[in-house]
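cron nightly-structures :: item 1 of 1
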Amino acid sequence: MTIQWYPGHMTRAKRIIREDLKIVDGVIEVIDARVPLSSRNPNFRDLTSKPRILALAKIDLADAGLTAEWLNYWRDRGERALGLDLLADRGLRDIVSTVQELFPTLNRNPRLLVMGIPNVGKSTLINRLTKRRGARVGARPGVTRGKQWLAASGMQLLDSPGILWPKFEDQEVARKLALVASIRDEVFDQVEIAWWLLNYLAENYLGNLKERYGKLDKAYPLEDIGQKRGCLLPGGVVDLNQAAAVVLKDFRTGKLGPITLDGKPPKAEV
């Protein structure tokens, strides 16, 4: 299975972002802490040289030890990287204070563009910073619509559509983005993605896997989960699509525990 997803609206969205960058003072780039490398759109790096805050959202769903390593990794490379748990409002004060540090002499509230790939938490971050439901939030990638300035603590925020890049050269990156719902479920084979996740967990988070599902058949873990969760077709045959949906939902909602799919950061070159 090859995963590619770059609908036509993303080309237009990229043009809009280029125009919006001309009228802002800086950028808050939001990424998913579970995929802190894979969820960075490589095209964003060259779009602007304006000050940037790198916000690792969903740290509550990610491996805490690896999140700390990734924060250090990005900071060592000159990024202003911050960890956010938006459900508990953790990290919001760090965003506010960092914005103040970036623009100490500006005689108005700085204007910031919030950008990132689909479903990393951009709209939720805006909602928390503005303390109101100012931006629509959806569970499906690509839900953000329209342009709107919103006043937050000492700043003005502009939301932007979530966009990916035109082609995934690395299919492992594509699989990870599918798992965190940055790619629409209709685009990929959920059974194959669930298999990939179960293999990854067996190698890296076996304890999480056992705690959620108990002991599994190593050769047929998805079938085993389907049996245990009652995902059955007539005649007692396991419905693999339903079992895969269970696994994906458990991962996305944190029921499999804190997990980071990108593993450890690359080692610094000597």
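cron nightly-structures :: done
The longest strand covers residues 26-32.
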